[in-house]
Input
Amino acid sequence: MPDQSVSQARTPEPPARTPESPARTPAADSGRGVSRRALLGTAGATGLVLGAAGGAVGYAAAPAPATPLTSVGSGRAMFHGKHQPGITEGLQACGHLIAFDLAAGAGRREAAALLRRWSATAERLMAGEAAPHDDTDVARDAGPSSLTVTFGFGYGFFARTGLEKQRPAALNPLPDFSADRLDKARSDGDLWVQIGANDALVAFHALRAIQKDAGAAARVRWQMNGFNRAPGATAHPMTARNLMGQLDGTRNPKPADADFDRRIFVPASGEPAWMANGSYAVVRRIRMLLDDWEKLSGGAQEQVIGRRKADGAPLSGGGETTEMNLEKTDAQGDLVVPLTAHARITRPDRNGGAAMLRRPFSYHDGFDADGTPDAGLLFICWQADPLRGFVPVQRKLDRGDALSRFIRHESSGLFAVPGGPAKGEYVGQRLLES
Output
């Protein structure tokens, strides 16, 4: 979990509070054809009917004056653009990752039809509208809630579609790492979809629509669910925390950085041409061994990370964004930031300038039979070239990161994510129709 990079991991300002209730508005009750976009300015209310003894005997719709959506619900990301959505936006409260394999007999033609369907669905849902067909009504009462849907291609996709000559060299399989304990059934895939939103029902609605749209062309290979802190949960914007309680993402690259595009996105003149303005996503399910981690004292945890737990400041002093002094020693002459500290090892200036943009989600998938939590990080990092981004940093972590005792990499994938589609295009059109 390289320190240099979790997302634009800043929590948005708390939204203005407005009265809201989960019931449908009269307009929503008038027919299934009402779009979510038509409801963006209103929300209904529900009356709870109580019996004489005070027990609930039923629910009845109660008229209510129209009230605006909260700022959380009205947030909207654009589907069309230079880059696909879901890369440079801030962390979202909930997310789903899903990988598909093309069905037996499906090839380039079927893949193009599938990406056309997926793109049409994603565009509508991100605008706050119902799915193009067979909408489930799960998100009927909500606004877009900053929904993003992002699509990528795995290594095997190109052989299945006869496009091996268009497969980028940067998509070659990742090397083995000593900390890997990978479940092949939950790794890789021909196609990958990332869904994020600030409302759980909106995110699930998109997941279900994408899965249904796959039809007979592709089958689900694996699927994972994640979450982050909700917008407005903190008194002011701040870097997110992971399930270890650490501020995670202090050194993430920022779009305002002069070299941001060069590090994160394939240049317009890059190869192959269909990847212009795209990026490569490394996806890892990293289990945190929380029982072991939580046995450490707070001070010992800080030695492992190299930063203060309370505010994310380096152990060498200052605030969260203060440059870490790697040479500073204590009264006994020992380095204040240990040689094996995670934050020291992952610094870009110690890795040939390697940088990646992280947009992860935490996850919790219950407990093992012995009570051990199955929880950790759905690690997602973006870079122009994984061989210069993720790989060198992970190799260095493999050789001496103190954090490696407390995490386990359990699944992995690498996906080529093309640039954003222009108006009237679908994602991947420049590849599939080349």
In short: The CA atoms of residues 332 and 338 lie 13 Å apart. Residues 76-432 form one domain.
